[in-house]
């Protein structure tokens, strides 16, 4: 009996199963099942309790010290009011200006850091020599926290914009480069060997093995990198800058208006989360093979 | 459609490997370790040559030397009379006339099966890119993998992935196929079917096969010749000619001739296994 | 928080032959000297940049703006003999450790509770996730308003910075413990408490230390920022962040760089401490 | 096709450990996994029996549901219908009367080999400390790990880890020892050595044993009875008695008798393996999701 002649293995032999529902039907089923479990109610309950405690401490009881912090009602009413008492709401153009400036800086810094860090990381991972020469230097500079660069950056670069972008880029750059390098080193030796057997030139190995093989690590690195970019952006904007969410937070503090300060914090949280979601989304789109393999392993 | 990969010459003429007096000494931290000790083998064109030995005995070192992953210290290796590596250039070049199928599988996980199979011809510029993919698909179909050609390796079972890897090797029309314990992680039953699939591909191509394993029954079932190796340093301990008729299938496993062959080799293998085992325990302590 | 990348464990080299010490081997390998060469080249370029500007009037980008390393070294020699400089170390360490230790004390139990109890997780995880994306530094002004002293607000922000990282790592670590360990323990008659203390806790330790190492990095950043933003001129002065900030105010680049290097060393020492501690607490990780 | 040759298995073992002689019955056990529309039965109407003091081997193609059976007998998972009886009592959850030796080692990496072995008795405060430790030393000597007591599992080789795990199971004096493909992943050369070692251990006091494997040779060499399973959903295809005398020796494996048994079993299994190859193998390495394994 021939085992390969008639497509025996590849044949569709999935055990007989009931009709698979459409995407919508499946979603509906999941939602129904979810609603039967206590999870969604507990989640809502958790958030409600937290908000209520916040309100009670700051507004309901106005405990000492807590009264200085604006409560949820104050914040929300100001945030959506056309005439905010403390000057910042979704109707004021300044608010969007702050968001725009911060996002623009992040974008520039992120693109710069990726454009420099990924190729350098690939090179460091691929060539032992390049790594030997550069990695120790890297490791010497890396323990210096990004905040320590702030004054130096302000003195070295003129204006408001450049130091801020420099700091965010620097932070991202370290994360991206290191992860890319680790990514290349994590590629199994046998892929290189297989490529060699199949008659690849160096160029083929680079484009067909090194780059795609390091991809999962690169995207992990990019996610970390966008996180630290926001982190250092806020720091830099607080110290120097004339716009941006970090600046909004600090200037509100200096001017003793607390509501825009909290609005700035929440906005920052949302924008930061959103940007890392975009990176994750792009990564998943680019690495279907990785996503599918993980799904098969039940993860 | 004309067969893409399975076109066997009536009498195989290429793919003879001569391993002559090869020695390999590793040098970790200045302490010399002999992995292979004056080893010689003559492998005829189209022969299925099985190398059996305990793990870590140095049989992979020989494979690495043939494939061009590692250099050798002494001796020489020839392919069809042409030296691959010898005293002058101890490291063989890597080329598509000798293709390795790896222990844990080395299909690129970021390419679909068809792209994987097309990779070799593509980087060698044998055909235009579209044609490479086309031929890869046809080859996969012949190997019974037509339905999964557009899946990623992570999406198919390990058995399918391993067969696709063999197809990826064969589409380059190599002279020698080097297999490094490719079925090690599989359970016995899957393994059995994999063997039958491999033999079927072999029967159609008659490519020379150099197959490393530590499973004696696997070796006897597949091979024309079984080399039992000693534990480190690696030397040839015993050579057994397998005269079981081809084509073979699972009924061969229970035939009288098979039983006698196993009996003949078993003692030698068991002895080496015990030695390796004891050495292992000593090393750990 | 996206996965924290740890260095992949390298395949152990054959350990049978170990004749020379680690140091000897390092020194005799070309890799070591290449690293030294890389660092020296960097220093030379830097020195040249400063020299070229003074001597030739030629300004190299980036390096041209910096004082020469020799000038920095001279400034450092001057600074390290002053007791005030060492007090900044003490101040900063006090803050870092204060916030960090509180974060560990609260974060580890919280993370474990999230991991082992589904209801607890359902209730407390969503608010945690809402607050987590806000960068710790954004809390600085709010915390200055809330806490009565600057010192307390710095420690609070430091705490926040480390807390989120530690909780996420503990949660992730505890939830990925192999189910076989739990099953084996159950078979041997382990109670819920045993499962927790004998399996989940030791199984989570590696993640706790990963979280601590990352958290420590964030902590230093936060302390510096807080010192710069709040400490400048006010009563809660001191600290290495303030050292840099006052050098900046005084316009002395040499001293800024001395401060940066000091912080680099301080940060390195604290992560080294965590690493050593980790090896002590988890002897099984040292095997191989 | 059920070969039920009545045969006295040259029972020479002393019947001293009453504890080891227990009977296990599976009655119409079924279990399925998955969402409603994609529910897949993994085990269907499984009925068989493990006789007291017997070593019963379950053999089946990979992914056929063997691990699910192990989980149910051990009490980690529960059948959808049917019941599992141990000495007439229904199995409801994991307990120390049924010990599992897992496919890959489940020694806790944060404890030394010795601490792993004494884990169970220490938890349950059975006997005094010196008593427990003495027993642990004895067992570790017996499995040949006397020198490795203070090593961590990661410092042991694969074969040593399995032996340590055997010691850890035995110190709890289980009524039933369950081995879930314990020698899988060991290389083909050290495997026979482990099998031989395990056999000596078993033949010493014949503790009732359920051994799961996909290797037919291993099964024949070790077992008193083979239960051959079908492809998923797992059903009993055949029960084959192995009439080899004990103590078993390797040379018995090349006897014509064994080859005949092997031939029978292979015929069934090959058939089943081929079936599983196309579709089910696809699902095999995914396995049923670990449902709510944590308390």
TrEMBL record, chain B:
List, alphabetically, the SMART domains matched. Answer: AAA
**PROSITE patterns xref list:** ABC_TRANSPORTER_1, ABC_TRANSPORTER_2
InterPro entries, sorted: AAA+_ATPase, ABC_transporter-like_ATP-bd, ABC_transporter-like_CS, ABC_transporter_ATP-bind, P-loop_NTPase
Q: Where is the ABC transporter domain?
A: 17-256
Q: Name one Pfam family in it.
A: ABC_tran
Carries keyword ATP-binding? yes
Q: Does this UniProt record's set of keywords contain Acetylation?
A: no
Q: Name one GO molecular function term.
A: ATP binding
Keywords for this protein: ATP-binding, Nucleotide-binding, Transport
Lineage, top-rank taxon, reads: Bacteria
PANTHER family on file: ALIPHATIC SULFONATES IMPORT ATP-BINDING PROTEIN SSUB, TAURINE IMPORT ATP-BINDING PROTEIN-RELATED
Homology family: Belongs to the ABC transporter superfamily.
Q: What is this protein called?
A: ABC transporter ATP-binding protein
Species in which this protein is naturally found: Hansschlegelia zhihuaiae
Q: Specify the taxonomic lineage.
A: Bacteria, Pseudomonadati, Pseudomonadota, Alphaproteobacteria, Hyphomicrobiales
UniProtKB/TrEMBL annotation, chain C:
Alphabetic keyword roster: Cell membrane, Membrane, Transmembrane, Transmembrane helix, Transport
Which species does the entry assign this protein to?
A: Hansschlegelia zhihuaiae
Q: GO cellular component terms?
A: plasma membrane
Which Pfam families does the record match to this protein? BPD_transp_1 (PF00528)
Question: Which CDD domains does the UniProt entry name for this protein?
Answer: TM_PBP2
Main localization of the protein described in the UniProt heading = membrane
Give the family this protein belongs to, as stated in its UniProt record: Belongs to the binding-protein-dependent transport system permease family.
Where in the cell?
A: Cell membrane
Does the UniProt entry include the keyword Membrane? yes
Listed GO biological process terms:
transmembrane transport
Q: Which Gene3D superfamilies does the record associate with it?
A: MetI-like (1.10.3720.10)
User: What superkingdom does the record give?
Assistant: Bacteria
Start and end residues of each ABC transmembrane type-1 domain: 89-278
Residues spanning the membrane: 32-52, 96-116, 153-174, 195-220, 256-278
Query: How does the UniProt record describe the way this protein sits in the membrane?
Result: Multi-pass membrane protein
Name this protein carries in UniProt: ABC transporter permease
Automatic annotation (TrEMBL), chain D:
Q: Which family does it belong to?
A: Belongs to the ABC transporter superfamily.
Could you identify this protein by its name? ABC transporter ATP-binding protein
Q: Per the database record, which ranges form the ABC transporter domain?
A: 24-256
Cross-referenced InterPro entries, in alphabetical order?
A: AAA+_ATPase, ABC_transporter-like_ATP-bd, ABC_transporter-like_CS, ABC_transporter_ATP-bind, P-loop_NTPase
Enumerate the UniProt keywords alphabetically: ATP-binding, Nucleotide-binding, Transport
Q: Which Pfam families match?
A: ABC_tran
Give the GO molecular function terms. Answer: ATP binding; ATP hydrolysis activity
């Amino acid at each position: 009996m021939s085992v390969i002649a008639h497509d025996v293995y590849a044949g569709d032999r999935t055990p007989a199963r009931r009709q698979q529902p459409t995407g919508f039907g499946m979603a509906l089923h999941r939602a129904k099942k979810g609603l039967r479990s206590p999870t969604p109610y507990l989640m809502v309950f958790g958030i409600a309790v937290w908000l209520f405690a916040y309100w009670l401490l700051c507004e309901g009881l106005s405990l000492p010290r807590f009264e200085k912090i604006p409560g949820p009602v104050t914040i929300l009413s100001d945030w959506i009011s056309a005439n905010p008492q403390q000057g910042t709401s979704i109707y004021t153009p300044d608010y969007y200006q702050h968001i725009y400036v911060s996002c623009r800086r992040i974008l520039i810094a992120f693109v710069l850091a990726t454009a420099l860090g990924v190729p350098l990381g690939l090179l460091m991972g691929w060539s032992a020599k390049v790594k030997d020469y550069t990695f120790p230097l890297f490791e010497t500079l890396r323990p210096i926290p990004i905040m320590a660069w702030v004054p130096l950056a302000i003195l070295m670069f003129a204006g408001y914009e450049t130091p801020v972008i420099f700091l965010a880029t620097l932070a991202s750059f370290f994360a991206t480069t290191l992860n890319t390098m680790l990514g290349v080193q994590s590629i199994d030796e046998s892929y290189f060997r297989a490529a060699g057997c199949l008659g690849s030139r160096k160029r083929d190995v680079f484009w067909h093995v090194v780059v795609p093989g390091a991809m999962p690590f690169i995207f992990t690195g990019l996610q970390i990198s966008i996180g630290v970019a926001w982190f250092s952006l806020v720091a830099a904007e607080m110290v120097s800058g004339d716009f941006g969410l970090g600046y909004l937070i600090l200037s509100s503090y200096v001017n003793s208006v607390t509501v825009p300060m909290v609005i700035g914090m929440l906005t920052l949280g949302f924008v930061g989360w959103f940007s890392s979601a975009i990176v994750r989304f792009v990564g998943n789109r680019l690495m279907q093979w990785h996503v599918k393999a993980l799904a098969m392993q039940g993860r | 459609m004309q067969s893409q990969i399975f076109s066997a010459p009536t009498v195989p003429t290429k793919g003879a490997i001569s391993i002559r007096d090869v020695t390999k000494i590793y040098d970790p931290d200045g302490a010399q370790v002999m992995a292979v000790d004056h080893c010689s083998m003559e492998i005829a064109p189209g022969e299925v040559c099985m190398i059996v030995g305990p793990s870590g005995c140095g049989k992979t070192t020989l494979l690495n030397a043939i494939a061009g992953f590692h250099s050798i210290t002494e001796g020489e290796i020839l392919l069809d009379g042409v030296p691959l590596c010898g005293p002058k250039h101890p490291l063989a070049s890597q080329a598509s006339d000798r293709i390795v199928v790896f222990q844990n599988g080395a299909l690129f996980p970021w390419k679909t099966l068809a792209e994987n199979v097309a990779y070799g011809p593509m980087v060698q510029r044998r055909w235009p890119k579209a044609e490479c993919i086309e031929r890869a698909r046809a080859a996969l179909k012949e190997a019974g993998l037509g339905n999964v050609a557009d899946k990623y390796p992570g999406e198919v079972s390990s058995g399918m992935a391993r067969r696709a890897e063999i197809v990826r090797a064969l589409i380059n029309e190599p002279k020698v196929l080097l297999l490094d314990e490719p079925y090690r992680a599989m359970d016995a039953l899957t393994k059995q079917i994999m063997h039958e699939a491999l033999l079927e591909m072999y029967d159609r191509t008659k490519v020379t096969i150099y197959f490393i394993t530590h499973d004696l029954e696997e070796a006897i079932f597949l091979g024309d010749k079984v080399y039992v190796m000693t534990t480190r340093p690696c030397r040839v301990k015993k050579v057994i000619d397998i005269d079981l008729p081809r084509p073979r299938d699972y009924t061969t496993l229970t035939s009288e001739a098979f039983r006698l062959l196993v009996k003949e080799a078993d003692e030698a293998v068991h002895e080496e296994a015990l030695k390796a085992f004891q050495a292992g325990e000593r090393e750990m302590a | 928080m996206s996965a924290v990348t740890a260095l992949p464990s390298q395949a152990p080299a054959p350990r049978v032959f170990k004749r020379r010490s680690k140091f000897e081997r390092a020194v005799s390998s070309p890799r070591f000297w290449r690293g030294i060469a890389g660092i020296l080249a960097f220093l030379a370029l830097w020195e040249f940049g400063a020299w070229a500007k003074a001597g030739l009037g030629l300004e190299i980008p980036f390096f041209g703006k910096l004082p020469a390393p020799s000038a920095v070294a001279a400034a450092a020699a001057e600074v390290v003999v002053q007791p005030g400089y060492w007090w900044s170390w003490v101040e900063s360490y006090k803050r870092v450790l204060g916030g960090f230790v509180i974060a560990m004390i609260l974060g580890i139990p919280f993370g474990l509770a999230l991991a082992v109890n589904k209801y607890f997780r359902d209730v407390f995880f969503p608010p945690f996730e809402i607050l987590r994306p806000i960068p710790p530094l954004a809390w600085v002004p709010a915390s200055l308003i809330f806490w009565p002293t600057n010192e307390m607000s710095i420690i609070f922000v430091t705490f926040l910075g480390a807390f989120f990282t530690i909780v996420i790592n503990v949660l992730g670590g505890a939830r990925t413990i192999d189910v076989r360990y739990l099953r084996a323990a159950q078979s041997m008659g382990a109670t819920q408490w045993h499962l927790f203390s004998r399996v989940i806790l030791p199984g989570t330790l590696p993640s706790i230390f990963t979280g601590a190492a990352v958290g420590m990095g964030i902590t230093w950043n936060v302390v510096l920022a807080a010192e710069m933003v709040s400490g400048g001129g006010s009563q809660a002065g001191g600290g290495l962040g303030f050292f840099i900030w006052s050098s900046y105010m005084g316009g002395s680049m040499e001293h800024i760089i001395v401060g940066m290097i000091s912080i680099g060393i301080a940060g390195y020492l604290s992560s080294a401490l965590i690493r050593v501690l980790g090896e002590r607490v988890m002897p099984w990780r040292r095997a191989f | 096709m059920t070969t039920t040759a009545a045969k006295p298995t040259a029972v020479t073992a002393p019947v001293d450990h009453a504890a080891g002689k227990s009977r296990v019955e599976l009655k119409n056990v079924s279990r399925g996994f998955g969402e409603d529309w994609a529910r897949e039965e993994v085990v269907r109407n499984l009925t068989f029996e493990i006789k007291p003091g017997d070593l019963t081997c379950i053999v089946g193609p990979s992914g056929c549901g063997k691990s699910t059976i192990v989980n149910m007998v051990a009490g980690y998972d529960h059948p959808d219908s049917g019941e599992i009886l141990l000495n007439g009592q229904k199995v409801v959850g994991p307990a120390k009367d049924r010990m599992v030796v897992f496919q890959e080692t489940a020694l806790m990496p944060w404890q030394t080999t010795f601490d792993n072995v004494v884990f169970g008795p220490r938890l349950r405060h059975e006997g005094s400390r010196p008593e427990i430790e003495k027993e642990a030393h004895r067992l570790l000597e017996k499995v040949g790990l006397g020198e490795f007591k203070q090593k961590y599992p990661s410092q042991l080789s694969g074969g040593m880890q399995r032996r340590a795990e055997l010691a850890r199971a035995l110190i709890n004096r289980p009524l039933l020892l369950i081995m879930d493909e314990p020698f899988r992943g060991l290389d083909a050369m050290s495997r026979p050595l482990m099998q031989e070692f395990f056999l000596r251990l078993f033949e010493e006091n014949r503790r009732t044993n359920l051994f799961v494997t996909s290797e037919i040779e291993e099964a024949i060499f070790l077992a008193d009875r083979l239960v051959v399973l079908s492809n998923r959903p797992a059903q009993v295809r055949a029960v084959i008695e192995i009439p080899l005398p004990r103590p078993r020796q390797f040379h018995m494996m090349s006897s014509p008798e064994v080859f005949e048994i092997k031939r029978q079993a292979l015929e069934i299994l090959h058939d089943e393996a081929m079936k599983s190859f196309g579709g089910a193998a696809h699902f095999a390495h995914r396995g049923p999701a670990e449902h709510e394994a944590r308390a």
